[in-house]
DNA sequence: GCGTATTCAAACGCTTTTAA
DNA sequence: TTAAAAGCGTTTGAATACGC
């Protein structure tokens, strides 16, 4: 996706050329308007010119905005970042493949998920917390967002737009404290072929995301948790083990009834249990 | 140098939450 | 029930970079 790449590249470029400047700029691209607002743009284009082109004046009228307003500009920029529209010429807009899919009721579920993951920041968060629990506190979530490259000044806005977009894309279907890829593949297997995934989407992620590997019927959180386990005999630092165990405790607390709040992990060095001996 | 596109930052008003 | 506080969404103008 050219728009996404250029936006992301520009974010990096702006930062590197401005180190030390008074104005802090983000190093990772993210939209200022939530997914739902950008879908309105796509619907407006689709409803008036279908797959044809329109100019910004027309689009502004259809969405009841002023073409000069920053809100409209933010919405346009966000729609391009989500991959819903393209701008083949200055001031002209057209639905991208993802945009035409998102206005199709048969494809909208998958298209929304793909649009969400088109955003570098959201992709980074999704990858980082795949199968895990998002920070519960807003401040903690904002710290994560800042760590991924968002300017400290706009961390709250980035978080708000992220949460709304995740909701609208269906990633909060299992609760607002975890990102779960909406399950559309099986449901839409008989529908029209879905749009191609973003170019940067690792193909093996799809294999991991499925409920295969003997985990049929288990919650995606459990599946994701066990997928994070390193291979046997791999070097697994104590800190990483601790993190995994704590995450497991949190997930169990979420998924199962009963008082599990008393479980806490610590890295205190204890006597190791005798490792099963095996002949080499 | 100028125009355009994009990003940033702040202000304002509305909604929701909480405590008395 | 009501008022105060906090949070959130929208809008606006400024700042910045890029292309011509």
Textual characterization of the structure:
The structure is a single chain. The chain is mainly α. The protein folds into three domains: 2-17 and 25-102, Arc Repressor Mutant, subunit A, CATH 1.10.10; 108-208, no CATH class; 210-255, no CATH class. 48% of the residues lie in helices and 4% in strands. The protein contains twelve helices and three strands. It has helices at 2-16, 35-49, 56-62, 70-82, 97-102, 108-118, 120-128, 138-147, 155-169, 203-209, 220-227, 238-255, and strands spanning 53-55, 85-89, 92-95. It has a three-stranded antiparallel sheet with strand order 1-3-2. Strand 2 (85-89) and strand 3 (92-95) form a beta hairpin. It binds a DNA duplex (20 and 20 nucleotides) through helix 1, helix 4 and helix 9.
What's a quick, concise take on this entry?
The chain has 280 residues and is mostly helical. The protein has twelve helices and three strands; from the N terminus they run ααβααββαααααααα.
Main sheet: strand order: 1-3-2
Helical amount among residues, as a percent range? 40-55%
The largest pleated sheet is described as: 3 strands, antiparallel
> How many individual domains?
3
Which of globular, elongated, flat, extended, rod-shaped describes the shape?
Answer: elongated
Rg, rounded, reads 22 Å
How does the helix and strand content classify structurally? mainly alpha
Count of helical regions: 12
| Uncertain residue segments | 1-24, 185-214, 269-280
Number of strands: 3
Cα-to-Cα separation, first versus last residue: 51 Å
Could you tell me the mean pLDDT? 65
- What portion of residues belong to β-strands? under 5%
Query: What's the helix-strand series?
Result: HHEHHEEHHHHHHHH
């Amino acid at each position: 996706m050219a728009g996404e790449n250029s936006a992301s590249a520009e974010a990096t470029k702006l930062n590197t050329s401005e180190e030390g400047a008074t104005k802090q700029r983000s190093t990772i691209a993210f939209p200022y308007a939530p997914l739902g607002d950008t879908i309105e743009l796509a619907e407006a284009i689709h409803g008036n010119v279908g797959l044809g082109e329109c100019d910004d004046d027309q689009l502004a009228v259809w969405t009841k905005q002023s073409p000069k307003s920053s809100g409209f500009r933010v919405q346009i920029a966000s729609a391009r970042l989500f991959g819903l529209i393209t701008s083949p010429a200055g001031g002209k807009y057209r639905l991208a493949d993802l945009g035409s899919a998102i206005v199709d009721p048969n494809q909208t579920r998958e298209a929304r998920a793909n649009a969400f993951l088109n955003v570098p920041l959201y992709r980074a968060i999704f990858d980082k917390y795949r199968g895990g629990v998002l920070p519960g506190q807003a401040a903690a979530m904002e710290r994560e967002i800042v760590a991924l490259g968002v300017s400290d000044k706009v961390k709250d806005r980035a978080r708000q737009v992220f949460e709304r977009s995740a909701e609208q894309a269906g990633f909060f279907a299992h609760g607002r404290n975890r990102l779960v890829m909406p399950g559309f593949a099986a449901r839409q297997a008989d529908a029209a072929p879905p749009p191609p995934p973003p170019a940067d989407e690792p193909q093996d992620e799809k294999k991991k995301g499925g409920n295969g590997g003997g985990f049929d019927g288990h919650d995606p959180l459990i599946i994701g948790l066990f997928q994070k386990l390193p291979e046997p005999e791999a070097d697994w630092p104590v800190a990483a083990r601790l993190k995994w165990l704590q995450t497991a405790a949190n997930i169990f607390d979420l998924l199962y009834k009963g008082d599990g709040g008393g479980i806490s992990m610590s890295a205190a060095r204890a006597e190791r249990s005798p490792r099963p001996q095996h002949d080499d």
